[in-house]
Amino acid sequence: MDDEPTLVRAKALVKRFGDFEAVRGIDVEVRRGEAFGFLGPNGAGKSSTMRMIASVSPRTDGDLEVLGMDPDTHGPHIRARLGVVPQQDNLDNELTVRQNLQVYGRYFGLSRAQVRRKAVELLEFAQLSERADAEVEPLSGGMKRRLTIARSLVNDPELLLLDEPTTGLDPQARHLLWDRLFRLKAQGVTLIVTTHYMDEAEQLCDRLVVMDDGRIVAEGSPADLIARYSTREVLELRFLPGEQAPVDRVADLAERVEVLPDRLLLYTAAGESALEQVHAREVRPVSSLVRRSSLEDVFLRLTGRTLVD
């Protein structure tokens, strides 16, 4: 994939709103055919970056090239080749599911015959064929999200931008949406995803950047980032609210210890062995859990707080 052409290239990219600097000089490259992620909490600058890439929000400073063009001078040409899934669904509730696709297709200059064919194809892709002539309003959140993604594909985009695609969805709906995105990637569509769900970033992204306070604090594949900034396993020891966690009695059992309000996180290559030693020292947490390290642990290591703080 390293040999693939670059579809998005940003250098020292800045976005300010008055005195507030939302994006603080970031460098990003997205290659054709990959799923690229922006991982970080709300307010990290992810959505501001996506809006600049989508060519709907001008950059304040720095260089930005999308599909080989400058958004400042070729915005309409870029937007014609993009698919955009906004953070909030903006479907037309007064139209049917099928009509939402057909009307949107007409915006891109497709003929009526073309949008009819495209709507059938996209309804099948989104698993909404049986609801084609239903109104949008009564659809579940997952169905509306799939329809929004289907609508973004009506112009056969080279690059699909998805801003927090599964926020508010239940686990089953999230996994179904992930499956649709995997299929798109297999078809050669380049994906850029923003998310604050670490499992989503691990599932979907070939590469990602971790953003915090408008800056990129790490970049790499999910596996590389976990290997670089965390240990193979994590032992979680939970204690009662207000109870003093015995950090000094377990600190030597791990490479590092993170102290959170309700638990201790012990980073170690062998979680079960560390747990046995915790018990041998008569430390009695309310509950304990040995798990593999995740991108949440990477973010905690880099920023000193969790993604959901």
Number of domains: 2
* Order of the strands making up the biggest sheet: 5-6-7-3-8-9
Architecture of the largest domain, CATH level 2? 3-Layer(aba) Sandwich
Mean pLDDT: 94
Helix content: 25-40%
Low-confidence stretches at least 5 residues in length (pLDDT < 50)?
none
Rg (CA only):
22 Å
The beta-strand count equals 13
CATH class of the largest domain: Alpha Beta
Separate helix tally: 11
* Coarse morphology: globular
What's the helix-strand series?
EEEHEHEHHHEHEHEEHEHEEHEH
Strand portion: 25-35%
Largest sheet: 6 strands, mixed
- CATH domain topology of the largest domain: Rossmann fold
Fourth-level CATH superfamily of the largest domain: P-loop containing nucleotide triphosphate hydrolases
Family: Belongs to the ABC transporter superfamily.
Organism: Amycolatopsis acididurans
Membrane topology: Peripheral membrane protein
Keywords: Antibiotic resistance, ATP-binding, Nucleotide-binding, Transport
What does this structure look like?
The chain has two domains: 6-221, 3-Layer(aba) Sandwich (Rossmann fold), CATH 3.40.50; 231-292, Alpha-Beta Plaits, CATH 3.30.70. Helices cover 35% and strands 28% of the residues. It is built from eleven helices and 13 strands. The strands form three sheets. The protein has a six-stranded mixed beta sheet with strand order 5-6-7-3-8-9, with helices on both faces. A four-stranded antiparallel beta sheet has the order 11-12-10-13, with helices on one face. Helix 6 links the parallel strand 6 and strand 7 (190-195). Helix 3 (97-107) packs across helix 4 (112-125), helix 5 (141-152) runs parallel beside helix 6 (171-186) and helix 8 packs across helix 11 (295-303). The model has no long low-confidence stretch (mean pLDDT 94). It is a peripheral membrane protein.
